[in-house]
Amino acid sequence: MAAGAASGGSATTDTYAEAKTWLLMPAWVTIGIFVLAPVLMMLVYSFLTKEFRGGVIWEFSLSAYDQFFFDRGLFGDDPPKIEWTYIAIFWRSIWQAGAATLLSLVIGFPTAYFIATQPEKTRAMWVFLITIPYWVNLLIRTVSMKFLLRDQGPLNDFLLSIGIIDSPLHIVNTNFAVQLGLFYSYLPFMVLPIYAAVERYNFSLSEAAADLYATKWVTLRRILLPAVKPGVIAGCILVFVPSMGSFLAPDLLGGAKNFMIGSLIEEQFKGNAGNWPFGAAASMILLTMVLIILMIFARQQAKAEKGAS
Amino acid sequence: MSKGKYDIKSFPGFRAITLLCLFILYAPLLVVTVYSFNDSQSLTVWEGLSWRWYADVFTGPESGKFKEAARNSFVIAIVAATTATIIATLAATAMVRGGKFKLRSISFGLISLPLMVPEIVTAVAVLIFFNSIGFERGLMTILISHIAFCIPFAYLPISARMQGIEDTYEQAAMDLYATKRQAFTKILLPLMMPGIISGFLLAFIVSLDDFIITNFVKGAGVETLPTAIFGSVKQGLKPNIMAISTMLLSVSVVMVTISYFVSKSDNTK
Amino acid sequence: MKNLLKTSVASLALVAGANAAAAEGNLVLYHWFEYIPQELLDKFTAETGIEVTMDTYDGNEAMLATLKAGAIGTYDVAVPSDYMVTIMAGEGMLDTIEDGELKNKGNIDPEWADPSFDPGRKHSVPYQWGSTAFAVDTAKYSGDVNTTDIIFNPPEELSGKINVLDGQGELIALASLHMGIPQCSTDRDQLKALNEMLQNAKPHWASFNSDTAKEVLVSGDVTAGMIYDGFSAKARAELSTLQYAFPTQGYVVWMDSVVLLKDAPNRENAIKFMDFLLEPENIAAVSNFARYNNGVSSSAEFLDADLIAQPENNPPAEAGAPAFVEVCDEATQAVYDQIWTNLKK
């Protein structure tokens, strides 16, 4: 999946070449009309004038982007300065998503590695163990997490009763809680691609290195890691991208106190703000950023694949 | 798998981290499972074992809402996953068995677009779209958007599987005067079944679990399981939601266990 | 594949069937969360044969946003607060109830029959009214609770243990009362001061939550929290040490009304539902459930005895003046929106 996702895989034969237009038509039409066209329409909306309390007026305007990048003070007539508010929100989202990705990697990599090196018979069982919680709805998982971590929740009760801590750990409504929630939401997306890559890895390479007196850790870093890098990169993308746009975890675990991009966008359409062009502009900026990140990763991955083969 | 190899592979601490990982994954759900048997109305006080919240799920004041929502969710997931799987199978055939062609990489970009666009962006875009063309929101809007964003999830396993199938089988069939259509339905399709099934299942789960897009495009009074659960848990975790969570968990444990043993017995043949 | 196809076609038929059933004898309600007892909706269905579907929202602004984003024409009635009735009427989102359509219009308490937000009750009937302030757990905080300082300038021991409502209207109205400035101020110094005051208060707040306003108080996650009076009474039933505050600086009051939405798909049933809610016994059932007062004059005999007497209903003599949330014009509102964004960034 990792390799296929970046390059699209290669064509094997041209058996059905003359039917390809008809075969692809349903996919083109469905995604073209119901995903691509809406995204393009959103691009148009981001250049329209906002209607008071939601909606748009069909007049060209740059004010959505102006609001995003320039601070004109509380009353809108100060000389424009760089607006740090939204940049800070984006930065916070990147930071939170990055921390969640790192957390997933630190825990997910050893887990994936451990599973992939188990005897073949028990591997499937380990993979199942990782995926079972994901059959339970994402919302329920997130709220369960909150329930467990509360100041007077089971975790703190337990830690207090065995005397590790004297006062409850304050976790809910902090940035760490959001990271933990994102980690919990997307962990299998990290574990599975890495697992697939390690499983394909030819361990005789490591053995050869060991024969040359390389230590285990050196072998891991120098030989295995470069070989499974595409899997690691795929895992990081699959955790990072959805984390960037998430609004459930910040809302439920973070106390809705600090906007992340997802909540900022949601607020424009479903909340207090009602500024559609601004929501559309923020969405376009988020989309552009994600596409740039994906492109960088894809390039990295292509390089990694070239290096590995 | 010799013992010697095994040694090189194992790293101290990796097992511990794996167990820690499983602990983090399961702890919240297990706590919820325990509390779902709590007799008390309040979450914080333990008042003894009881099945009352399980009865409440099926007969309580919210049972009608959850039944309706569960029905909507399953209908949407089945229809969306089926349609997306068919579309993805056809597309994969063109992409993998269609030779090199000009629009190939653009087509691939289009197919994977729903994966690349963050969900909140898709949700907002689709909302704007339905709104501006005056499409009335209801089950249909949910269904259409689910079909569109499920396609890449169905496509990836299907095309991966197809790439692994050599075309000699189809060639052999055609040498024996089978038409291309026959070669496709009689040879390629059966060989692709495992990929199609996992593509279908992936699309099914993605549709069943989707909250963000559904929440944006759903019409008046139309709830799916995730939006109904969200409406409930927004005011805090309630015992009946804990009971639902426990039931979802046990169903998945049972299903996974069955499929584990089925696949195991397959291997021994 | 054939079987899959069959299942999906069968399921599609199911979906189509569901939509057909919805076309007759239905009522689609857009309502606040946890505000109406299911039994009352069941009673309505039993009496009229009309099936009720209900969606819920957690704030006036969220409701307005959803309706604006294409949901108008799919709901029959909604339950906005006073200021939101004005806004929705201004947006042309409300249908007019013709004279004589409502049989029970005479049941409306004269005090609520001609409110400023809907003169002559052309679009709405009264639902419930109450106040918005905050509640404090007196077991954990022993100081004076009847001051907005609890929220906006909290003592050390409350810092980090405060929840506020995630609604711009109510939060900024209470903040304006705290500072003693008008709600739709155009005075730049006042607005700057308001912005600054909120910025300084925010670090003391644990969360912005409307729908968990009760839960966070009862569970002890926070010690003080903004809340509606009836919701606070329900919270007190679970945690007896909670005290609802009536700040000396003033507090927010509101009247929620049932409005007839424009392009309601089941207009006739909506009128029937409004008539149903004007029956004293029925509206009293809502009050008994949600612990608020209502706007129907003869409902008192059906109310729980302790409802009238509950402390949340009886402001002390030294309580400040109650104030409705005000509707500002577009230019003024833009500044308040900016203040809100600054607060949540």
Question: What topology emerges from the helices and strands here?
Answer:
The complex is a heterotrimer of chains A (309), B (269) and C (345).
Chain A: H1 2-7, H2 20-45, E1 48-50, E2 56-60, H3 63-69, E3 70-71, E4 81-82, H4 84-116, H5 120-131, H6 138-149, H7 154-161, H8 175-200, H9 204-211, H10 216-244, H11 248-252, H12 261-270, H13 276-308
Antiparallel strand pairs in A: 1-2, 3-4
Helix pairs in contact in A: 2-13, 3-13, 4-8, 4-10, 6-8, 8-10, 9-10, 10-13, 12-13
Chain B: H1 3-9, H2 14-35, H3 52-59, H4 63-97, H5 104-116, H6 119-132, H7 139-163, H8 168-175, H9 180-209, H10 212-217, H11 225-233, H12 239-268
Helix pairs in contact in B: 2-12, 3-4, 3-12, 4-7, 4-9, 4-11, 5-7, 7-9, 8-9
Chain C: H1 2-22, E1 26-32, H2 38-48, E2 51-57, H3 60-71, E3 77-78, H4 82-90, E4 124-137, H5 149-152, E5 162-164, H6 168-179, H7 188-201, E6 205-208, H8 213-218, E7 224-228, H9 229-238, E8 242-244, E9 251-260, H10 267-278, H11 280-290, E10 293-294, H12 305-309, E11 322-324, H13 330-344
Parallel strand pairs in C: 1-2, 1-3, 5-6, 5-7, 9-11
Antiparallel strand pairs in C: 3-9, 4-7, 4-8, 4-9, 4-10
Helix pairs in contact in C: 7-13
The H-and-E topology of chain B, N to C, reads as HHHHHHHHHHHH
Alpha carbon gap, first and last residue of chain B: 21 Å
User: How much of the polypeptide of chain C forms β-strand, as a percent range?
Assistant: 15-25%
Count of helical regions of chain B: 12
CATH superfamily of the largest domain in chain C: Periplasmic binding protein-like II
Low-pLDDT regions of chain C: 15-24
Keywords (chain B): Cell inner membrane, Cell membrane, Membrane, Transmembrane, Transmembrane helix, Transport
Membrane topology (chain B): Multi-pass membrane protein
Organism (chain B): Roseovarius albus
InterPro entries (chain B): Bact_Polyamine_Transport, MetI-like, MetI-like_sf
Explain what this protein looks like in three dimensions.
The complex is a heterotrimer of chains A (309), B (269) and C (345). Chain A has one domain: MetI-like (MetI-like fold), CATH 1.10.3720. Chain A is built from 13 helices and four strands. Chain A has helices at 2-7, 20-45, 63-69, 84-116, 120-131, 138-149, 154-161, 175-200, 204-211, 216-244, 248-252, 261-270, 276-308, and strands spanning 48-50, 56-60, 70-71, 81-82. In chain A, the strands form two sheets. In chain A, strands 1-2 form a two-stranded antiparallel ribbon. Chain A starts with a helix and ends with a helix. Chain B contains twelve helices and no strands. Helices cover 77% and strands 0% of the residues of chain B. Chain B starts with a helix and ends with a helix. Chain B has two domains: 10-49, no CATH class; 59-265, MetI-like (MetI-like fold, Orthogonal Bundle). In chain B, helix 4 (63-97) runs antiparallel to helix 9. Chain B is globular, with a radius of gyration of 23 Å. The relative contact order of chain B is 0.13. Chain C is α/β, with parallel strands linked by helices and 345 residues long. Chain C contains 13 helices and eleven strands. Chain C has helices spanning 2-22, 38-48, 60-71, 82-90, 149-152, 168-179, 188-201, 213-218, 229-238, 267-278, 280-290, 305-309, 330-344; strands at residues 26-32, 51-57, 77-78, 124-137, 162-164, 205-208, 224-228, 242-244, 251-260, 293-294, 322-324. In chain C, strands 1, 2, 3, 4, 5, 6, 7, 8, 9, 10 and 11 form an eleven-stranded mixed β-sheet that branches. The relative contact order of chain C is 0.18. Mean pLDDT of chain C is 89; it is low at 15-24. Chains in contact: A-B, A-C, B-C. Chain C: GO terms for molecular function: polyamine binding. Chain C: It is found in: Periplasm.
